[in-house]
């Protein structure tokens, strides 16, 4: 009869070898799914499936493979149209002038506004005073437009307002002008005016 003795160094080597096998086995088991995203499985005749970390399958079972991520689905239907957003802010220009002079039968500029090229709706207001005891007719215009004749009662003041459409291809100084229709001996005094120009997309469908 032979007696086998194993020293401490031998047992240490055996323990380290078993530990290494366990680590490798753990790493192999952790490789599910594989690097390419494929999952391996084996199933038997009863439909029982077992995930494995590699093929071939054990005897009596058949292999089955599938991807961790399925194929890309069809494109979904187009969503409903969203609500219309609020209108953006428009460019607005403003000018004001305080003055004091008598009108005559020529068009006198009370206030003007400098506008870049574009289409505008321009609103103007002029303060007029009739310092005579007679009715005084007057006309006013914004830019090249002309208003109808208006009448200012004796010793009466009015804030005359009008609106005009401006369509300019270049930078332009737009004046707000008034004239006394009776002649040079006017009793109408202009004391100031304002102009407010709002840029628009089109004027009268233009």
CATH C-level label of the domain at 92-200? Mainly Beta
Based on helices, strands and strand pairing, what is the structural class? Answer: mainly beta
CATH-defined fold name of the domain at 92-200 = Jelly Rolls
Following the backbone from N to C, one meets helices and strands in this order, namely HEEEEEEEEEEE
Biggest sheet details: 4 strands, antiparallel
* Content of β-strand: over 45%
The count of strands amounts to 11
Query: Given the C-alpha coordinates, what overall shape results?
Result: rod-shaped
Distance between the termini: 119 Å
Rg on CA atoms, Å: 47 Å
The stretches of 5 or more residues where confidence is low (pLDDT under 50) are: 14-30
User: In DSSP terms, counting alpha (H) and pi (I) runs of 4 or more, how many helices?
Assistant: 1
Strand order of the largest sheet: 4-11-6-9
Question: Could you tell me the mean pLDDT?
Answer: 81
CATH architectural designation of the domain at 92-200: Sandwich
Helix content: 10-25%
């Amino acid at each position: 009869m032979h007696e086998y003795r194993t020293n401490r160094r031998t047992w240490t080597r055996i323990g380290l070898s078993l530990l290494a096998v366990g680590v490798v086995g753990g790493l192999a088991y952790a490789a599910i799914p594989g690097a390419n995203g494929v999952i391996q499985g084996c199933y038997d005749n009863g439909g029982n499936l077992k995930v494995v970390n590699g093929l071939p399958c054990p005897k009596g079972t058949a292999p089955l493979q599938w991807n961790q991520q399925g194929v890309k689905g069809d494109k979904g239907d187009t969503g409903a149209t969203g609500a219309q957003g609020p209108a953006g802010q428009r460019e607005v220009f403003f000018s004001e002038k305080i003055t004091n002079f008598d009108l005559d039968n020529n068009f006198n500029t009370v206030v003007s506004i400098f506008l870049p090229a574009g289409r505008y709706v321009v609103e103007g207001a002029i303060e007029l005073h009739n310092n005579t005891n007679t009715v005084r007719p007057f006309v006013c215009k914004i830019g090249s437009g002309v208003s109808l004749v208006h009448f200012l009662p004796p010793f009466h003041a009015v804030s005359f307002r009008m609106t005009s459409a401006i369509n300019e291809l270049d930078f332009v100084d737009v004046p707000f002008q008034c004239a006394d229709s009776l002649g040079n001996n006017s009793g109408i005094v202009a004391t100031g005016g304002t102009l407010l120009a709002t840029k628009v997309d089109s004027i009268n469908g233009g």
